[in-house]
Amino acid sequence: MNSSSTTVKAGKIKTNITKVSSAIKVFRILRLTRVIRIMKLQKLKENINEVMEKKNILKSLTNNQVAEMKISKKLNDLILRRVIVLVLSMILGIIVFNPSVYYNTVNSMEFGMKIFKNFENYSYEQISLTYDIYINQHTVILILFY
Questions:
Q1: Are 133 and 115 in contact (CB under 8 A)?
Q2: Could you report the per-residue pLDDT of 131-146, keeping only the tens digit for each?
């Protein structure tokens, strides 16, 4: 009889332990949610305090300071517009006043070839002598630059 009563008592103790452990888990969850709620309320309180401080600062500003702030904003906008217009005009001016847009520059080689093209009434020896001198001068120039 003793052995069966101890088994029943052990079973009751086991069920009591599981009930207590589940109750502890529930209590922990409740405590955790409570802490989270308190943290949210604290954060909300801090946000309200910041808003109130900003409101107090705005109230403390006099009308002159508010007017000065408006004037400085307008001046900043005006200066920014002028700078933008100046930069855009400089960009367009560079394009407009660049001479290579309107005409092509002719280097000395092209100029010389145009002159040789216009030779009609000269003999072959005169043209070949002039051509040889011209080529020799330009080979010297090419060697110096390269």
A1: no
A2: 778 777 777 665 655 5
